[in-house]
Amino acid sequence: MLIHLARHICMKPQFSPCGNYLHIASIEGRPTSIPRSVTKRTNDNKAKPEITLSLLLTTHRLSTRKRTHSPPHLTHKAKLTLGKFTGLSLARPPFTFTWTPSHLHFTVSGHRLNVFRVGLFPSATEAVVTIPRLPVMLPLSASNREVYYLPPVSQSPGESTRGVVLLGSYAAGREKLELRRRSWASAGVAYRGLGSIRDNSVLEYECPPVGFYVEEDRDLGGWVALPENDPQEGGEGSVVAVAGTEAGERLRSGRLTRRIEVFDWGDDVDLEGICDWCGGAVILRGQY
Q1: Which CA distances in Å does 225 have to 102, 237, 287?
Q2: Per residue in 178-208, pLDDT tens?
């Protein structure tokens, strides 16, 4: 199933090893308008709308004494804009999440290794979002397969810096893992190889899971800060980070500020039964 207009697509929570923090990563989609020049060029007045996909990461400090009564306190927030797309698969999302005590490794399927290392805590010496310096090319089928990046277990100096890249299985007849984009999508999306390739280029035979080792220093070239460019202007991505207790328009001290509709049992619940006389359906509204 493909969606074209969405808000929150998926959400992944993770507790810190000490149990004092809760990290929440979510994918958000915002609808964007289609330029008229593109609509005239494609001669399609019913062109599919686009969504701008972003990764939102928040870190909340939990109370050490009253965990069930004191609300979590927002201590860190980061936003990563991926670019504009026309749809994606909900049955098999083209995103994977790998957690470490200090970072989230967020990987997007494509014919290149698109892994973003996002810091879970504020840091004065390291960029919030970093990417590999060197490109790593993947098989064409990787754009329709789940891609995982498993970082080295130890980050101590002198230890091995060998990570693992895993590609999930692929079968042409199964539910496709898709992240669709237009040919005129933002230059940053096309440059990074994000999204699915055309159907006529996808392999028609099954592929088993496969993986390979990479040295972060030699093969990836280390980690560098993600350029803070607007993808609409041809940049690779856009990152916005907020550290400390300052929060966005929807979060304040770990609480949602948006008003929530009250559930009304009389208006919001309908019970359906079967009539004993005619055997037809009977709808009961507000009679319970």
Answers
A1: 16, 11, 61
A2: 787 765 555 556 667 787 766 545 566 778 8
